[in-house]
Each structure stands twice: as C-alpha cells, then as structure tokens.
Amino acid sequence: MGQSVSRSARFEKGPEMRTVHDTTRRRDSEKRKRHVVEPKTAALVSTARTSRLRRIAPRAPRLATLQHSASRPDLDALLAAGKHRAMSAANVAVIGAGISGAVCASLLAARGVAVTVFDSGRGAGGRMAQRRETMEDGTELRFDHGAPYFTVSNDEVARVLSGWEARGIVAEWKAMFACFDRATGKFTDFEKVGDTKKYVGVPGMNAICKSLCLDDGLVAKFGVTVGKMDWLHDRSSWSLASLDGKDLGYFDYVVATDKIIASPSFSGLTGRPPPLDLSSFPQLSAMVPEIPVRPCFALMVAFSEPLASVPVHGFSFNNSDFLSRAFCDSSKPGRACVPPNRQSWVLHSTTEYASKVIHEIGPRKPSADALSKVAEELFKEFQSTGLNIPRPVFMKAHRWGGAFPAISIGGDDKCVWDKSTKLAICGDFCASPSVEGAILSAMSGASKILGCLNCPSGL
Ligand SMILES: Cc1cc2nc3c(=O)[nH]c(=O)nc-3n(C[C@H](O)[C@H](O)[C@H](O)COP(=O)(O)OP(=O)(O)OC[C@H]3O[C@@H](n4cnc5c(N)ncnc54)[C@H](O)[C@@H]3O)c2cc1C
C-alpha cells in the first residue's frame, strides 16, 4: 500500500487479458476522456458526448478509492518503472492550466496526490498558447501568439526541461536573433545561434501544458471558470463553485495560478466579484496586492513567400512606437507550413501602444472591428520599416490584457503560501514574468503542499 496507482488503471481489464497494443490504446483513450471540456464554452462538443464525459470524470474523486482498484501487476509495473509515489488521501484543486498550474499539478500527481485542474479556456496553455486559424482555401495556420519561446537558467528547471525534451514535447529552437533599428532601417547586434538557448513546445507552445495535463493521477476540466472559493473552517477544506454556480467539489488544498483570483479586474471582465474574497483572509490580503500588468497585442501574419529581406528568425525593434518584437513562427521545430513556401510570423506590440488602445476600447474582450484596426496599424508599421514586406495572405490581432506582470509578489519563496488555509498562489507574478519564473513558482507551490503531506518533494 506504500504506492498509489494511476487512475486509468481502474478502467483497464485484468492483466491476463491485456496485450501491449490493447493497453496502450485504452490508456490513451481514457486519458482523452479525462480531459473534460464543459459544454458552455465548448460549442463544438456535442451534448451527448459531454454528458458521457461528465459521467467519466465525476467531482473530485479521492485517490484512496482508486487504490482499491489496482491489481498487483499494476503496482509492480509502477514500481518497475521507478514511480515511487507517496501515499496520500489529499485532493488538490489547481486553478489554471497554464505552465505554472500544469507543472504544479503534474509534480503533485507524480507523488500520488489526487489533482483536479480547472481552466476557463478550452485547453491547456494559458499564455503559452497556440492559435489555429483556417484560411478561406481551407488550409490551417497555427501561431504561437503568446510566449514565442523561453530560456532556462535555473538548474532545477533545466532538469525538468530535459525530461520534457525526452518526452518530445520541447525542442531547442536554433534561431538567429538580432535587433532592428527602425530609425536607420538596419539590423544590428546579431546573436549567434545557441548563444542563449531558446526552447519551444512541440508542435506548439501549448504542447507542454497539454501533455502534463494528461499525466496519471490528474483530471483536467476545461471551459470551467472557478467563480467562488469558500474556506470551510470546520471541514478544513475549500468548496469551489464555477462562475455559473455549479458545485465543483471540496478540496483539501487549492493552488491558484492567476493574479486575477482576488483582483477587482475579475469583476471588470465577468461582472462578478473575484473568486477569493480577501476581506475574509486578513493574513493573505497583505501578501496579495493588486498586481499591475503590461498588456500586449500579438499580430499573427502569414505570407505566401518567405520574407527575403529579413536575415534572422526573430528580432526586437528599436525606435518603434508600435512594435517591440517579431518572430518567424514557421521556423520553429515541428511547425512545417503547408504549402511549404508559406511563412508565418508573430509580431508583438509595444506596451505603450497596447495600453493606449485598451484605454480607448476598455478592458472587456475587444470587438472584431477593434482588433482589425489594431492589425492594420501594426502591419502598417511593419511595412514602413523599409524591409520590403509584401501583403500577407492572413492577418489577425489578439489582445493580451495582462501579458506580463509588472511586479512579483512571491519573494524568496516564489509563491504565496498560507498554511492555515492550505492555499498556494503561484504563477509568473510570484517569481519573474517569464515561463521559467512560472515554473519555479509552481515547483515552490508543489513543495509547500508536499511538505504538509510529509511527502519528500524531491524537487
Ligand atoms: C505576448 C506574450 C509574449 C511573451 N513572451 C515571453 C517570452 O519571450 N519568454 C518567456 O519566458 N515568457 C514570455 N511570456 C510570458 C509567459 O507566457 C508567462 O510568464 C507564463 O506563460 C505564465 O504562466 P502562468 O501559468 O503563470 O500563467 P497563465 O499562463 O496566465 O495561466 C493562468 C491560467 O489560469 C486560468 N484561469 C484564470 N482564472 C481562472 C479561473 N477563475 N478559473 C479557471 N481558470 C482560470 C487562465 O485561463 C490561464 O490559462 C509572454 C507572454 C505573452 C502573453
């Protein structure tokens, strides 16, 4: 009984009947089923399918009940695979399936903790996002319109990263970068390939979060916005409810990974009070101030031919009021364009430009017209660089209202931890405004919880 087992084990038939192919197929299919997309925001999922999915992923199942369904060969297989897990009857809700939520959930699940991840979005990734667009001729385009890549300097993160590389969900982007001076029209400061290693998710930036959310012991529910978090003192647990009032279950621990969880800006977006009412938690309110953010517009563009006048895969702009960076998305590993000559780019606006536009149009989701205007303005700036930029075959803008947190609140801990309510607040805003910062914060949040459960974190 010293080890816990994968949830998928309970769906499998007895080992004596199992073939390798059969088992693999079943595991994959069960993992897909555990990815529940709630119907309200996921119009593409049929009612029949979602009701079946809901039956398969009931509210917050406890690991203890799952352990009974494990047969001895399952345990042996796990032991043989070296998955020494800590037994724990605790269940944890992780709010957010961005990189901090996905890493934290995966680390906890790997040590036998039952984890349920909720995300408002239709899939995992958060700001490590990939957008699919279909052109009029039916061809599909994909853009990493959030974080374009990330770098790693911390040894612990490097260790986790090499595991992801081995899983095939991350690869080094051997890209040449430079600066482009808008005033002189010249590229400067050419970086050598590999000077600073740049990593990307494969086949998209969201691949890491997507894959981690399929880990054993973890249930991910998408299209679910946590709208209310109530601490039940007598039960010593949290009760969560969705924005539309659905009961999401009781949880011993909660990991909240978005700064909006206790922020008035949640009300600006949803018209509802933020899920976490800090006035009930004086010990927390001092630690969780309102976090200022830096917005950004991402412009996704595709060209029928490569940009011959651009000698690099990515560059930052000097002396532009509109544009800050540009990346050739189709040059990343695992992103072959069809037809092969097509090239896709993602350009980022300056914070100043994005702030000005958001001030004019307000904090809510921008209209299609407002986004078209932004796309035209940013593209006009790109064309006026003198880089001989042709008309694109596709162009669309996306707004990131809070692309980067402007402060960090986690201190040396890199997360906010309230032991009395077993609440961890993690994310890039607790460490540094980067993918690596978010990962470090997630590791810290996971180790706080594992410490309480007397599980060696080994992080
Ligand atoms: C345009 C852009 C460019 C960037 N460039 C870089 C770069 O070059 N290098 C780099 O390292 N980083 C970059 N970043 C930053 C990087 O993407 C972030 O630091 C990192 O992804 C943050 O991860 P996170 O998990 O902390 O937060 P997020 O990714 O924001 O995840 C939070 C998740 O919580 C969910 N959520 C929030 N509230 C709720 C709720 N109530 N209920 C359910 N779900 C909820 C959200 O849907 C979201 O998925 C960039 C970001 C952007 C937007």
Written description of the protein model:
The longest helix is centred in the C-terminal third of the chain and has 18 residues, at about 435-450. The chain is globular. Helix 5 (about 100-110) packs parallel to helix 12 (about 435-450). Strands 1-10-3-2-14-21-20 form a seven-stranded mixed beta sheet, sandwiched between helices. Strands 8-7-16-17-18-15-19 form a seven-stranded mixed beta sheet, covered by helices on one side. Strands 11-12-13 form a three-stranded antiparallel beta sheet, with no helix packed on it. The chain is about 25% helix and about 25% strand. The chain has about 450 residues and is of the alpha/beta class. The two termini are about 25 Å apart. The protein folds into two domains: about 5-125 and about 210-290 and about 405-450, 3-Layer(bba) Sandwich (FAD/NAD(P)-binding domain); about 150-205 and about 295-405, Alpha-Beta Complex (Polyamine Oxidase, Chain A, domain 2), CATH 3.90.660.10. The model is unreliable at about 1-30 and about 40-85 (pLDDT under 50). Helix 5 (about 100-110) links the parallel strand 2 (about 90-95) and strand 3. Flavin-adenine dinucleotide binds next to helix 5, strand 3, strand 15, strand 19 and helix 12.
Question: How many separate helices?
Answer: 12
Shape: globular
Radius of gyration: 23 Å
Beta-strand portion reads: 15-25%
> In what order do the strands lie side by side in the largest sheet?
1-10-3-2-14-21-20
CATH architecture of the largest domain: 3-Layer(bba) Sandwich
* Low-confidence runs: 1-30, 39-85
| Structure class | alpha/beta
CATH class of the largest domain: Alpha Beta
Average the pLDDT over all residues and give the rounded result: 84
Whole-number tally of structural domains: 2
Main sheet characteristics: 7 strands, mixed
Identify the bound ligands. flavin-adenine dinucleotide
Helix content: 25-40%
In CATH terms, the superfamily of the largest domain is FAD/NAD(P)-binding domain
Number of strands: 21
Question: What name is given to the CATH topology of the largest domain?
Answer: FAD/NAD(P)-binding domain
Protein name: Amine oxidase domain-containing protein
Pfam families: NAD_binding_8 (PF13450)
